[in-house]
Amino acid sequence: MRNKNLKAIGMIFSIIILMLSAGCKKEAETKEKKSENIKIICEDTALPMVNDLVRDYNLNNDPVVTVEYLDRERAFNKLNKSEVDVVIGYVQPDNKEIETEMLAYDGIGIIVNINNKLSGIGIEELKKIYTGNIINWERLKGESKLIVPVAYKNTLNSVQKQFDLKIMDNPVKEQMGNSMQYVSSIEEMKIFIAQNQNAIGFIPGQWYNKEINFLKISGIEITTSNLKNKLYALRFPIKMYYSKEKKDSLKDLFQYFISEDGKKIVRKYCIEAF
User: Which H or E element spans position 186?
Assistant: First the structure.
């Protein structure tokens, strides 16, 4: 009888050990799976497109991809420390250890309040507004109201950087005027323009909505066709940055970006660079 009891206890003990072992294995697999998740940090300039790409990719693929927005300095600090897998957008850093690939090009839309009747502007006129040489909408056949030009505080914002290169530095580099108002993000820019009838600013084309108006530049609209054919004057690159050791683990994600499914989403917002 005693032997039977010992045998039964031994079997129960063995079952418990197996269950604990299975539980530990499952927990380890879960942790391993979580560690495989791909983390993206994205500049707000490209956030609508990247969010859409990631949402579609996650429907049919593993590992799961997450997206967050941080300022440029923190984004690249995390990339250098391998705390994030991919950084998308931003002005390219001077770091030979970082791999770079093009994802898309977007246009820079010049925006005004929906109640502003102006439909277009020339490159020279735009520069004069931002240097303070044109200060009243009346000079552009608008109402006699003071113009409120708006720019970004961060000069390394991708859109601000390209605006400076194409407008402020061309043909001769000039400084922003004293009447300039500054914002910290694309969202702040949109809100500022939507709430101020006399303001003018600029945002990525993919951030357009009906609360603001895009102006034609020298008679050319901001459309994907005009961007692709380089007819529209203002466009900026959207790049992907990653470390060399991450290349293999990112292969499936990057392959998705250049697949037909990925291209369809990119084309909704921008023109693809591949």
Answer: helix 186-195
